[in-house]
Every structure is written in C-alpha cells, then in structure tokens.
Amino acid sequence: MKTIIHKADSRGFANHGWLEANHSFSFANFYDSEKVHFGALRVLNDDIVAPKMGFGTHPHDNMEIITIPLKGLLKHKDNMADEWIPVKPGEVQIMSAGTGVQHSEINGSADEHLGLFQIWVMPNKQNVKPRYDQKAFDVNERKNKLQTLVTSIDENHDGSLKIHQDAIISLIDLDKGKVFGYSLKSKNHGVYVMNVYGKIIIDNTTLETRDAIGVSNTESFEISVEEDSGILFIEVPMTF
Fold this sequence. Notes:
The protein has 240 residues and is an all-beta fold. The chain is 0% helix and 56% strand.
C-alpha cells in the first residue's frame, strides 16, 4: 500500500477578508510541486465565505466540479439557467464544465458564514455538453455506513450524482470504536481520504480534523476510529 500524508496545517492558506481558503492541492497563489494533483483529483478547497460575499461570474471548461456545502447557504447561478439556485448543507452540487460555462457562487445569507468543500476532478471526456445537477442526501443514511454521492455517468448507480470520470465520492460518519474497511474499485484507483472531523487511524497514521491521506496500490484498507468522525472519500483513477 502506498500512502501520501497531507496534514491540515500543510495546506495552502489564503485570507482575502471575505474568503478564507485552504487548498489541499496547488491552487491560485499556492503552489507545491508535491501537491499538484492526486490521480484525477485536481482540487480540494475548504472555503469559508463571509455573508453576502462570493465568487463573481467566471469561466470553466473541461473540468468536473463538485461542491459540498458544510454550513450556511450557497447560491449558484450559471449561463445554462441564469437563475440563482440555493444549495444547502446535506445537498451536493455537480457541474460538468465541458465546452465551457460561466457561473457565480455567493453566500446567500446576510449574517451567517458559508462553509464548503469544492472538488475538481479531471474528466475522461473532453468538450462534453455542459451540465448541472444537485441532490439532497439524508445525513442519517451515512451513520456507520458509506453514502455514495457521486459516480461515473457511465455507471448504472442509482441515487448518485454523475460526472465524466470513473470516480466515486462518498461520506461516512463513524462512531468511536468502530473499525471500517474500505475497498477500492480497481488496482488503477486510489482514494484521497479527508478526515472532516474527529480522529482516525489509517496504516498506523493518526488523522485529526482536516488531515488527509492518499491511499493507492492496494485493494482495501482499514480505518480505526478514535473519536466520532466524519470522513470524505474521493476515489479516482491514478492514471487516466
């Protein structure tokens, strides 16, 4: 088993006043040659956005973008619909940028900060027709069991959002004392594991809140839970 450990305090950090951003991988003014990507996973940003502030209209192309609100109210608008769409905690949003899309993201609250994860996955198809989707997931359905949020558009998996890559994004909330086994889809896949909160052990490595580990070259591994924990899994092809 091959592992890459990314402690929370090793992430790139930027404080723009209205935005506090933590970058797991090279992004904007943060560059680390050892943290450009993990397989097809290109970006994992952990953002806090001030009330009524946000990202003005900007372009994307040929990227699969997944947003997971953690607290507050996200509002999204793009040139496919040109209307503000609310996205709340418990919901997940995907956007296939494909041939090109313009979009905006703002904190829809006047008094509460917005917290979110934004994930970029490099696609396995170029110049597809742009598409947008979102879905609400019952947080109770990930209590001590894996809840699959996102899978490939080429897979017949009911209940998940779809992107143009052979990826699997999932969440689980594990109770203290549990031991959870994670099995990878194939030997070509790796999984980037972020401990959203709590304390876990993987391969004799202790991961606390926002610590992460990339795991590859294995069929499966175990997670020992030292404290009640929430875990994000981003499984992607390592070569593509």
